[in-house]
């Protein structure tokens, strides 16, 4: 898409084009047209205070393309720009590599060397006061009966205690190897549990407060989508005052925001509230909440998992009982600011209020999810999530859409730039714009700056039109045969992306004896180590599921073939996506296309994006599901993929892979 850009307004600062040229030269790169176009588009978006969505393919250099105008804008406005990512890996890339190099390169041309900081949620920082004070226990009942886990947790706790004496940041990510959530919770607090810097004895040296203070003094603040949502939708600001947000990995924004605003209720959360209220109130009142929790436990253990469209009478009565008994406990606790001069008691009371509020408010929210006149009026969905051996069943409640929240709380207050390699679904930005709440009277623009890769020459998209449609009974034998033949042609070098872990494991078991190349499966070891092993040994293959669709970056000859077993539609019984489909249909839309097809298009594009990661990469994307060639929605899905050369002839990809194998360099 061609975009006309206005002239740069007068400023005492160098233009973004000049700064980009300096940055590219300093970093040892070369000018890329897509990067230049993106820099200009971001600059104009910030100048005009209009929202912008930028699709920038792998290799565009999009982080530099948004950082350069962001740094310049921060200098000009004297207010920080917030960069939000979905993954820790990208946060670390920005903070450890991109921003330090850019700061050094641009510092001589700007009023001062650009500064930056990373800011995470309070739970990610060690709480000095909790580490030393008598805080309520954070035990988990299922671990009390496993001496091995108790011992392992104890060793982790000891490591944290030793680390706490020497850390300068209190950032959990500094702990290598990491520790379990069970161990870490004994040293961290949520924002709701925090006493506040002015009331806490350790407030002056609080790691979370120090991190926030640093973030308030820099030009660029790097954070994550969850904290961005908490800041935008919460009553109290978490991030420093800002006018501009750049959302990288923007295809993940809706899911991450939905996770933030999803609430859970189980007997475990009720019993935690009972333990925390402890001796702070009269025992008979606490016992009432405990009995309500026991009723909830019995009910959830007997109920079938899945979406709860109509509120059963017994569930309604139980939720009302939980709500009312939690409120009695809250009332019995008295004023929230009592014991403010006694930090130990104040901490215990704050922890009790936090647990009780969560139980009470979630029960209220679930009860209010029902009673609407029609399906179109429904705003939230409630479902029962089946438990596991380690986790009890729990009720969950989530909004059917977060577009209104994003429209009002994020886009309504700030200028937002959204970017990813995958934003245009079916060739248009409209599907994701609707999920973000854009397009309803909001001024915004979407551009695709392309990719430096020559997709038709570098890659083949092969759809196995001759195979049967995938069924529910596992992988058909014809699929296993097809996978084996493709891998043999490629000499290994294959990333297998499966729609379920069951399918990935079944394919691994069936093909390990059949193939002469090493075959790894997600779950055999940590994903990071498996990906490294896959990248280091060319003949090796790696099979896995969802996290590999978006998290694998293996340039070079170790990856020549990406196999996708089926179009990755959400499970038909997934409570949230099925409810969203039905809600869209009730309002007159196409629920399948708006929800299921969009979900599949995003994942397909992300999966296909694993193939070409460097300029010299070549290979094949093989989709075994014939629906990508035959179904009525195939055009929409194909329009969401990079423009690879397409074929349905199985001989063509095999021949191409054999040629690549014959010319591949030795390990």
Quick gist of this model?
InterPro entries: ATP-dep_Helicase_C, DEAD/DEAH_box_helicase_dom, DinG/Rad3-like, Helic_SF1/SF2_ATP-bd_DinG/Rad3, Helicase_ATP-bd, P-loop_NTPase. Pfam families: DEAD, Helicase_C_2. This protein is of the alpha/beta class.
Please tell me about this protein's structure:
By secondary structure, the chain is of the alpha/beta class. It is 46% helix and 12% strand. The strands form three sheets. Strands 3-4-2-5-10-1-11 form a seven-stranded parallel sheet, sandwiched between helices. Helix 1 crosses helix 3 and helix 9 packs across helix 10. The two termini are 41 Å apart. GO terms for molecular function: 5'-3' DNA helicase activity; ATP binding; hydrolase activity, acting on acid anhydrides, in phosphorus-containing anhydrides; nucleic acid binding.
Helices and strands in order:
Elements (H helix, E strand, L loop, with lengths): L15 H11 L6 H16 L2 E5 L6 H16 L3 E5 L2 H19 L9 E3 L9 H5 L14 H18 L16 H4 L22 H9 L4 E5 H9 L10 E4 L5 H8 L2 E3 L1 H11 L5 H20 L3 E2 L5 H21 L9 H26 L11 E6 L8 E6 L3 H9 L3 E6 L9 H7 L7 E5 L6 H4 E5 L13 H14 L3 E4 L3 H12 L6 E3 L5 H10 L4 E4 L1 H6 L9 E4 L10 H12 L4 H18 L10 E5 L3 H4 L3 H5 L6 E3 L3 H13 L4
Parallel strand pairs: 1-10, 1-11, 2-4, 2-5, 3-4, 5-10, 12-17, 12-18, 13-15, 13-16, 14-15, 16-17
Antiparallel strand pairs: 6-9, 7-8, 8-9
Helix pairs in contact: 1-3, 1-4, 2-3, 3-4, 9-10, 11-12, 11-14, 12-13, 13-14, 18-26, 22-23
């Amino acid at each position: 898409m061609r975009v006309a850009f206005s002239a740069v307004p007068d400023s005492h600062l160098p233009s973004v084009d000049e700064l980009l040229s300096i940055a590219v030269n300093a970093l040892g790169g070369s000018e890329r047209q897509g990067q230049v176009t993106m820099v200009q588009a971001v600059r104009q978006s910030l100048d005009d205070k209009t929202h912008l969505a930028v699709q920038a393919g792998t290799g565009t250099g999009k982080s530099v393309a948004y950082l350069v105008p962001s740094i310049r804008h921060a200098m000009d406005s004297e207010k920080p720009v917030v960069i939000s990512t979905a993954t820790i890996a990208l946060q670390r890339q920005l903070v450890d590599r991109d921003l330090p190099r850019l700061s050094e390169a641009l510092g001589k041309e700007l009023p001062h060397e650009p500064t930056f900081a990373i800011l995470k949620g309070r739970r990610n920082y060690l709480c000095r006061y909790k580490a030393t004070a008598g805080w309520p226990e954070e035990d988990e009942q299922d671990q009390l009966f496993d001496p091995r886990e108790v011992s392992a947790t104890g060793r982790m706790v000891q490591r944290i205690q030793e680390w706490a004496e020497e850390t300068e940041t209190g950032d959990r990510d500094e702990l290598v190897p990491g520790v379990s959530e069970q161990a870490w919770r004994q040293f961290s607090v949520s924002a709701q549990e925090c006493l506040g810097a002015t009331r806490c004895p350790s407030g002056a040296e609080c790691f979370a407060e120090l991190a926030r203070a640093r973030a308030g003094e820099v030009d660029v603040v790097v954070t994550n989508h969850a904290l961005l949502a908490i800041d935008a939708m919460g009553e109290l600001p978490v991030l420093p005052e800002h006018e501009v947000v750049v959302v990288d990995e923007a295809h993940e924004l809706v899911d991450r925001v939905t996770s933030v605003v999803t609430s859970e209720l189980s007997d475990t959360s009720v019993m935690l509230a009972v333990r925390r209220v402890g001796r702070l109130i009269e025992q008979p009142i606490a016992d009432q909440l405990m009995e309500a929790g026991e009723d909830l436990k019995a009910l959830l253990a007997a109920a079938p998992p899945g979406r709860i469209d109509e509120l059963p009478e017994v569930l309604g009565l139980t939720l009302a009982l939980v709500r009312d008994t939690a409120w009695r406990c809250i009332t019995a606790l008295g004023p929230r600011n009592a014991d403010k001069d006694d930090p130990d008691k104040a901490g215990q009371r704050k922890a009790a209020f936090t647990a009780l509020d969560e139980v009470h408010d979630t029960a209220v929210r679930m009860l209010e999810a029902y009673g609407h006149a029609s399906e179109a009026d429904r705003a939230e969905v409630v479902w029962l999530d089946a438990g596991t051996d380690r986790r009890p069943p729990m009720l969950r409640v989530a909004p059917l859409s977060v577009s209104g929240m994003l429209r009002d709380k994020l886009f309504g207050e700030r200028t937002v730039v959204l970017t990813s390699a995958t934003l245009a679904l079916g060739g248009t930005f409209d599907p994701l714009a609707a999920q973000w709440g854009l397009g309803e009277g909001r001024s915004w623009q979407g551009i695709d700056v392309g990719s430096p890769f020559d997709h038709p020459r570098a890659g083949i998209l092969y759809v196995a039109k001759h195979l049967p449609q995938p069924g529910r009974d596992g992988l058909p034998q014809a699929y296993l045969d097809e996978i084996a033949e493709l891998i043999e042609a490629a000499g290994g070098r294959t990333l297998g992306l499966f729609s379920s872990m069951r399918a990935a494991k079944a394919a691994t078991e069936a093909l390990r004896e059949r193939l002469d190349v090493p075959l790894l499966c997600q779950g055999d070891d940590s994903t990071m180590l498996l990906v490294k092993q896959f990248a280091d040994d060319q003949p090796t293959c790696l099979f896995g599921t969802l996290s590999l669709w978006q998290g694998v970056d293996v340039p070079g000859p170790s990856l020549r073939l990406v196999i996708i077993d089926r179009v990755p539609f959400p499970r038909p019984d997934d409570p949230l996506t099925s409810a969203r489909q039905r809600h869209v249909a009730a309002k007159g839309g196409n629920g399948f296309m708006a929800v299921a097809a969009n979900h599949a298009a995003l994942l397909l594009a992300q999966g296909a994006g694993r193939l070409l990661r460097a300029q010299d990469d070549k290979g094949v994307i093989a989709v075994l599901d014939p629906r990508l060639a035959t179904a009525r929605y195939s055009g929409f899905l194909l329009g969401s993929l990079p423009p690879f050369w397409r074929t349905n002839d199985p001989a063509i990809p095999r021949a191409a892979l054999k040629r690549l194998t014959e010319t591949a360099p030795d390990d």
